Amino acid sequence: MLTGCQLVSPRHTIKSMATDPPAPWRPIPGGITAPRGFQAAGITAGLKASGNPDLSLLLAPEGAVCAGTFTTSLVRAACVDLCAERLRASGGLARAVLTNSGQANACTGGRGLADSLTATAALADQLGLAPEQMLICSTGVIGVPIPMATLLSGFGPLVAALGSHQAAGDAAARAILTTDLIDKQIALEADLGGRRVRIGGMAKGSGMIHPTMATMLGYLSCDAGVPADTWQAMVSRAVDRSFNAITVDGDTSTNDTFLAFAAGEPLAPGHWDALEAGLTAVSQHLARAIARDGEGATCLIAVQVQGAGSDGDARAIARTVCGSSLVKCAVHGRDPNWGRIVAAAGRAGVPMDPAAVALWMGPHQLMAAGQPLPFDRAAASAYLRDRAAGAYLSDDTAEIRLVVGSGPGRGLAWGCDLSAQYVRINADYTT
Amino acid sequence: MLTGCQLVSPRHTIKSMATDPPAPWRPIPGGITAPRGFQAAGITAGLKASGNPDLSLLLAPEGAVCAGTFTTSLVRAACVDLCAERLRASGGLARAVLTNSGQANACTGGRGLADSLTATAALADQLGLAPEQMLICSTGVIGVPIPMATLLSGFGPLVAALGSHQAAGDAAARAILTTDLIDKQIALEADLGGRRVRIGGMAKGSGMIHPTMATMLGYLSCDAGVPADTWQAMVSRAVDRSFNAITVDGDTSTNDTFLAFAAGEPLAPGHWDALEAGLTAVSQHLARAIARDGEGATCLIAVQVQGAGSDGDARAIARTVCGSSLVKCAVHGRDPNWGRIVAAAGRAGVPMDPAAVALWMGPHQLMAAGQPLPFDRAAASAYLRDRAAGAYLSDDTAEIRLVVGSGPGRGLAWGCDLSAQYVRINADYTT
Lengths: 431, 431
Prior knowledge:
homodimer, alpha+beta, Ubiquitin-like (UB roll), L-amino peptidase D-ALA esterase/amidase, 6-stranded mixed sheet, 12 helices, globular
């Protein structure tokens, strides 16, 4: 039973949240090695007690530019400092990134930086690169140094395993995981300016933070050439609309890093907007996959806000709603609890007009003009229940749409429900 | 086994978190009616389906000044707007406050304000007050109007029940509760300037927000006269150090209100600092009681930060640590997980020096100079386990102390652990 004013069809906007990439982009098989010239490898070096793969390498072709975005936490790992400084000093030039999973190399003092320098120098030497062209990301337990002998002895097999085939990309994507339940990869393709352009990506993370365990890492490859400063600006905008728009538990990691490489024939500026659309789609796919893989989650929550004063304000409201423990519990309990949603929006710290609020949960409109509407509670609850039964990343998204005024600002955020399983996972982790 | 540098004895500072009031204040029996001249009442009017008490009245003596602090949410109830406006217009003069529990009167549009005006006018008339001297707080389900006939028919019995004895205060304290497991009251007494001064308080809340259910409400009475502007400044500072320093789930209510009345012989300015110390102690007691009564909580978490750039920065770090889902889960799991604590501190948005971090959990020092120390993990885990076995508000406080630099800033925050029971309570509330 839908009553009251329906401002716009909710289905129209819900489609924009789907995983279909925007034209002219289409999904293709593979991941980080789908773009021309990129090689990757993943092996088990013995850094993890579990015996799972733990060493990953991505090698970009000559001439690659690299854009990076990093955690804003003041407590950040030595490897993050090293990546940021090398990209700054080179003006966005790098060729390769090593990832070790098992030890985060955060809170390890001067030794942490020394180990990062030693590792990148040794691996760069084996690859015939200058040390400054080599980046490093670490993920795992905080406060524990990397076992350097084990790490260094893994470089030979790692370099030998480099390849541009899909299996090599798969291995690299698996070797960066920690608590993740599944690996996260995607590749898109489009014809731009008479030639084929591909973007590939891989990521890890199942919480915004797991300080004793892990972090969020993302990597992207692209076989179109773009000037370094343009590429960095594109990547920063894409990250704002993807990785910076997800939340699992509101905690920010010490190691969060996203590195995006672009290498290939220069793409004409007339196609940069199209390239950025693909870049954003790949980033959003990976970001949603991280949110969906949130610890203990049974569904993805997608919040769309419109009518805010600016896109930034809309994103802030969307992310606050997504991050509310009470909203997350309500979705988990299949409870169409509009009061918690609008109350979370009200504390987002940006302007909104309470009297203008309209709210939909999937196809069910729950509020108009700031007040509740009569609605079919059983049907709305069933809508939420069916999300948990949906297939991975297809129909398991609980969609919330919120109008907060008449401004031009629109924004999206993604999160996941909060289950008792989350508490069990995080109450029992290190002891 | 304690190793590494111990900056100061943790016991010294932990004492400042205890519930002993600062000298010259001492606890006395009773609550909101302990100060001279204050009357209160609580009855069951029939507003709640449960049949629990639901109507509460506090009446201050003639000449009372009243200071208020209110939710910063942009989505706030009509009664909050009315209280704020009346205190602004009168310059901080009010005589009484009515509280109805059962309906929050938020998101009820123009009717919400009209109902608040009707209720205060009718009750003021029965009390012989001007409507402008009457305030109203509502707590309960959002979006549901107050059943006005039931409310108005309760005013006769409510006024008849007014009294200054402890039973009247107890009844008032019970009638403001919603999901709370216990009522929250305190009274302190001191000899200031040759006479006895008393401060009483009562509060409700078991989450920073329950948008479909409730909110945090706090009331304070004092029988010393203080100019209205001085009183408001004192109250604002006390609220920053108490109610604004607690978090249960990071959500801010639509109805949060704290009202503090002072009425009696003027107190000489030389005793204002002592009065503020008592006011702060009462506020902190009530705030801690709310955090301890957090939904599903098994213990209180108290975080003390020192060495920050300012007291405000220290409080921001303390509250971020207290609010971290991962820290809350770790405490619940009896896991001395220092990595989650320091990572939360790093994302608080205020300056800190990661290399200076030192960290204690109870008597156990876990970090010094930004790096982990060897510590007795079993003993630290047992320390956390024993908190849940402690008595209410005595030894059930998990104490975390964090040094973040060498600045003068110090701050406290209180929260509670995150249990699977919290998820169950909040996943199943309205459906």
